[in-house]
Write a structure and sequence with these properties.
two-stranded antiparallel ribbon; 22 helices; 2 strands; globular
Length: 448
Amino acid sequence: MASLAWGLPLLIILIGGGLYLIIRIRFLPFLYLGHAIAILKGKYDNESDAGEITHFQALATALSATVGMGNIAGVAVAISIGGPGAVFWMWISAVIGMSTKFFTATLAILYRGVDSEGKIQGGPMYFIMEGLGKKWFPLAAFFSIAGLVGALPVFNANQLTQAINDIVLKPMGLYRGLQTDFVIGIVLATLTAIVILGGLSRISKTASKLVPAMAILYFVLVAAILIVHIDVVPEYLAFIFTDAFSANFYKGDAFLGGVVGGIIILGIRRGAFSNEAGIGTAPMAHGAAKTNEPIREGLVAMLGPAIDTLVICTLTALAILVTGVWQSSDANGVSLTASAFEESLPIIGKYGLMVCIAIFSISSLFSYSYYGTKCMSFLFGAKNKGIYNYFYILSIIIGATTSLSMMINLIDTFFALMAIPTMTATVILAPRVIREARIYFAKLKAGY
């Protein structure tokens, strides 16, 4: 079911829709990336503006959800099947995703709504209702129902538990089966509960500390690997470009490995899965930003896919390529990435990677709870949103202790379904974003 949901139709919605948006606005936001960084640094922060959190905290919350196993395991899968060329198409996906994030985050501020308690809220369900009208409620409800299931952390908890067991506990002889899984689940659930029961403020503050820390640690580890293999780094950077247009065959699916079109689809799919542009999760975080200028939040949101895919996914790809494990090892996913780290940095490599995986995954556990409670609040009223957190915390323990292939399949499917209402509304409302952008950039040029 998940493979069907994440198949060609969804890629057409995400990539086709993203290309339409980028062409309609004529790449205009890309000229203001320097301005976006200035906004992120707080130059335009105003405490009197509507919203709950700063631009930086909104981006950190969104990134803490998107930067996860997709950046470590997903890249390894793409290279195993499609070779180095798949990375190039991940980059293309990121550039298109930057445009999509600009539009969806701008709409999240432009058409904020109010919940049943009268508090300002943002996200696809609200910009559908406020931008398209109340007759579009079924589309907003469809997004929120899909979000309730899609935001559950079963996959993250399951994969993090597996990584802890495989990289740390089993080699040390400390793995005790279900008993160990249950203890890990309890620890993860407790850590998550401490943060998420404190609401968005605590989630965003925690994310704003964790996200930069994990990015810096990961960068340092990969930099060390690249220094060890500095002689082949230029060769593999060039290979990413040349291999993107060749029909080389690598491990895995013969169709994907042997056909250029298959490599393109694979790379774009992994990129879209990693940065979540067009899915609709990030606009829920960006919609809470303290700003009265929608375009500013759109520009900040654009930086998300750049950091997530152009930086972190590229670091993973280079580590795997320069060490040669993508050709010499039969491992796949996170195990292939672990092999690359261990090859260049014996002893500390795989444990350093384990720390990164833990931070990546735990920060995702925090952010997705916020998305789920927003969907719960929209459907059943703000007073009931806290109920979702208890199901959420329980699902972490279930995810850690159970082989949930069917449940994970279901959750991935619902996550993909969120893109349908998000992209539909975004494409329809695109002309309004373009009008706002032209007004804002004209004011900026005039010195306002």
